[in-house]
Amino acid sequence: MKVSEMRKSYMQTMKIRPKAVELDRPTRQPLPERDDDWRLTFLDEANGTMRLQNTFTRHILDLCNDDVVSFRSRGVLFLRGNTTMCGDEVQFEPFHGSGPA
């Protein structure tokens, strides 16, 4: 999906799928599942990049065209990978091969 298609959603909140996983910093064990809202806070159409911010934890997730499958009108952004939050860090791990999309 092209990042430019997200222009109408600038500064709006959305859910991401798959849901982000948050890990306990010392143990690296998953914390109870939440379904936080994420806000589109930056959009660079020329470079095909965007930035989402978790409205609860304030984590920042930077994505590019290849990381996004689609955006649904009900406010759900489908990603081509898994998002993990631990401490102040966010990691995005793309699916490999024919993983979920």
SSE layout and pairing:
Blueprint: E1 13-17, E2 21-23, E3 38-44, E4 49-54, E5 60-64, E6 68-72, E7 76-79, E8 81-86, E9 89-94
Parallel strand pairs: 1-7, 2-8
Antiparallel strand pairs: 1-3, 3-4, 4-5, 6-7, 8-9
Question: Notable features of this structure?
Answer:
mainly beta, 9 strands, 0% helix, 47% strand, 3-stranded mixed β-sheet, 6-stranded mixed β-sheet, 101 residues
Summarize the structure in short.
The chain has 101 residues and is mainly beta. The protein is 0% helix and 47% strand.
Can you walk me through this structure?
- There is one protein chain.
- The chain is mostly beta strands and 101 residues long.
- It contains no helices and 9 strands.
- The protein has strands at 13-17, 21-23, 38-44, 49-54, 60-64, 68-72, 76-79, 81-86, 89-94.
- The strands form 2 sheets. Strands 5-4-3-1-7-6 form a 6-stranded mixed β-sheet, with no helix packed on it. Strands 2-8-9 form a 3-stranded mixed β-sheet, with no helix packed on it.
- A hairpin with a 5-residue loop joins strand 4 and strand 5.
- It is globular.
- The model has no long low-confidence stretch (mean pLDDT 92).
Quaternary organization: single chain
Structural category is: mainly beta
Biggest sheet, spatial arrangement of strands: 5-4-3-1-7-6
> How many beta-strand runs?
9
Fraction of helical residues: under 10%
* Unreliable residue runs: none
Mean pLDDT across residues: 92
Largest sheet, in brief, is: 6 strands, mixed
What is the helix/strand order? EEEEEEEEE
Distance between the termini: 12 Å
Gross morphology is: globular
Q: Determine the number of helices (DSSP H or I, runs of at least 4 residues).
A: 0
* Radius of gyration from CA coordinates: 13 Å
Percent of sequence in beta strands: over 45%
